[in-house]
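Usage

Read records sequentially. Each one opens with the input sequence:
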Amino acid sequence: MIKKLFLVLIAAAAIGLFFYFNLHQLLTLEGLKGSMDQFSQYKEQSPLLVFGGFFLLYVVVTALSLPGAAILTLAAGALFGLVEGLLVASFASTVGATLAFLVSRYLLRDTIKQRFPERLDAIDAGVEKEGGFYLFTLRLVPVFPFFLINLLMGVTAIKAWTFYWVSQIGMLAGTFVFVNAGTQLAQIESLSGILSLDLILSFALLGVFPFIAKGILNVFKKRRVYKNYTKPKKFDRNMIVIGAGAGGLVTSYIAAAVKAKVTLIEAGEMGGDCLNYGCVPSKAVIKSAKIAEQIRHGEHYGLENMAPQFSFKKVMARVHKVIADIAPHDSVERYTNLGVDVLKGYGKLLDPWTVEIKLNDGGTQTLTARTIVIATGARPFVPPLPGIEETGYVTSDTLWTKFAELEEAPKKLVVLGGGPIGSELAQSFARLGSNVTQVEMAERIMIKEDLEVSTFAHEALTESGVNILTSHQALRCEARDGKKFIVVKHNDTEIDIEYDELLCAVGRSARLKGYGLEELGIETNRTVVTNEYLETLYPNIFAAGDIVGPYQFTHVAAHQGWYAAVNGLFGNLKKFKVDYRVIPWTTFIDPEVARVGLNEQDAIDKGIDYEITRFEFEELDRAITDSATKGFIKVITPKGKDKILGVTVVSEHAGDLIAEFVLAMKHGLGLNKILGTIHSYPTWAEGNKYAAGEWKRAHAPEKVLNMLEKYHAWRRG
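and closes with the structure output:
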């Protein structure tokens, strides 16, 4: 700490001396012109001393991030000419930038990472992905000031030597432009000299250089990736979309809305996994299971406890009816009416612009498009357990068909996985009569949530009849004497668990095979690798939805679909980076768990100085009337500020309550704004206002209140 303080004092002293002796006045265009004759005389008398002194001054100015580096570069051209000026400015600027980089790394790395973790994530990701080339791009295309790049790169993991040589090469072109402009400034002798053609051209080049550099980079990248392919002169479509899940549907709808000619290709059911296998059927069965549980515990509502009478087959029939009722929203007919050309079949990329479609009716069609969007989604991951294929299993995709054939719920159901899907289905089928055992390899279920939330969920599922086995590793499946068993290991002991049905809910894997991605060399690392614009290796091929990640949510897929459509159709004019700053998600166990932004564990991991505001639903009138007082709102804010960093809601209707916090975070509204918003009484939404009130009470202005107390006492006489 003392060493850092000493270094700061030295830097502060140097900066103070810089301004005390008015050196900053010299580093202006006027100061440069006024000192040219004197500097030229010094150069004639002691050329090496002037050269070395100029080099040292340049290094100090850039190392301390002082204003005037651009003027010094012009001065290098004016004093030393193009060749020598370029030599001294190039090396001095790089040495100074490296020193600033090292100082930032030593002094600011820990502090900046703690204060601005989210802002540095994009830079860290870029450095990790592209390394020196990422820095080279920043240097070549000076969107940000060079001094800011020096400081920010210091807090990344890039090596100092890499930073030096990449900066040396990356800044060379820009330095050349400045030095060349400086040589022209040195030749000005009269007013008319300012308007000389050479000078005008030099500064014109300086102004357009960033755009030229960016254009050169883009051309270079495109030629590199497209060099083995011949681009069609004309295209059949503006856009082809492969996959009719949430991502593909939104993409194609937007494309059609702006009058683009778009074809949507889907081999299976329209609406994707969410409608047919995921969100919709699971929420339908959750509702039925909840009603059964309420009947079972009628005393909570002043009624008699009763065993619910129901047909499991009818429950599953209702699930399929719900799917059928929603299906027209995503149907071929609807999207055809919206202007989308829908083809039922399998699409495969032949080259960056051509898609071969093997139609479901047996035919084959080939189409070209300027832009292609891959939105093929994900499928349940099935762990490669020995014997699992022989004994059989269901997933969140297949259980709806298989269970619809059953007269009653499976007697013994093993759910493999303790994430949101596994937890939702385990609780629901336990409430519908199954003896459910949930097996999770981690030490707790819903591991991505805070410990108290995981504990809350564990208790809720246990109360519903789920036998939860955490820290149990599945080893194999076996069939013995007509019975099926899954063998798990816990504390080096193997345990046999008998089951009638095994539900695999251990995650989902992106659908990457069979679409021509490998043949085109498009990088896949569990998901398709894209940039911040959803572009793959080929700038005209985009990906959206679960195949991309990082969140496997329907609403995120739809969110990405907008960016894929707009960037794919209008990216030549304007491109938009996908905004992942405020992504909510909900686990629909009972009570629900909803979250947006950071939770407490995230804040700890990021080293954020935070505080927690809580509101317990046992204090909410509407929760009391509904006999649903279990749960809480937990808000993460910076110390002493009402800015919302993240919210976790555990309660009935948590998925609905979180929406207000999502809106607030999206538009930069703090807890004070929520507190000042009128909420209807009695509603669940009042919980949000009361949570904001808890924060306000904890940050009451004590001095002002003491003064008011004295004022009122004085008024009383």
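Summary fields computed downstream for this record:
- The domain at 388-505 is CATH 3.50.50.60 (FAD/NAD(P)-binding domain).
- The chain has a mean pLDDT of 86.
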